[in-house]
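Long-time lurker. I teach an intro course on protein structure, and each term I like to show students one example going from raw sequence to a predicted 3D structure in C-alpha cell notation. This year I'd like something fresh instead of my usual example. Would anyone be willing to generate the C-alpha cells for the chain below so I can use it in lecture? Attribution to the forum is fine with me.
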Amino acid sequence: MKNVVLVLFALLLANSAAFAGSRFYTIQSGIPSFYGTTPTGNFVASSSCDPFMVKIDGIKYYMMYSGSNNPGLQTLLGCSGMRKIDFFTPLRDLESDGDDLKITGEELKKAGIRLVASDIHNTLLYDKIDKDFDMNKVSYIDMSRLRITPAAVGYGSFDLYIKKENGNLKKIIGKVFVLPTRRGERMFD
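-- Reply from a regular --
Happy to contribute to a lecture. Here you go:
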C-alpha cells in the first residue's frame, strides 16, 4: 500500500511539473493532535494551492484577497505559493488580535479577505462584489477545531460561525483542499 501511494505521488508530481511553474507538496505521515502525532499512512497534507471554501445557503464562497488588479490563483487564500506547514498555515497567518483560538470577521476584513461567490460552473464572481457574502455577518473561525482528513489526497475542515438575523450563531463547516492548477485557473474564466 505504501508503494502504491508513493507511485501515485510521483505521478502527481510529474504531472504538476509538466503543467505548472512552482508546485510543491508536503507529505505528512501523521496527524498533529493535542497529545502529539497520531500515526497514519503517508498522505498529501498540502500543496501550493489549497483554497478555503464555505457553502452558505447553497452558494459556494471562496476566501480571496481583495484589491488585486489581476485576479488569479495567487489571490485565493491558500494559493499564494508560500510554503506551508499544513493546510491551515495561511489561515493561521491572518491572526492579528492576539487570540489564536479565533479568527474574527474583523481580522478577516483587516487582512483584506472577501468571501467571493461562485456560480453553478464553479466560476468565481470576483468582479461582482455585491454577490460576496457580507463579512459583517461573519462572527469567527474556530481555530481550536481545525481537522485534517487523512487520505491519498487529504483535505481539511474548519468551523465558520455566522451571525443570524435573530442574533444567534450558525456553524458552517468549511473545507480546504488540494486544487489542481488547471482546474483553479478555470475558476477565473
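Some talking points for your students: The chain has four helices and eleven strands. Helices lie at 2-19, 89-92, 105-110, 181-186.
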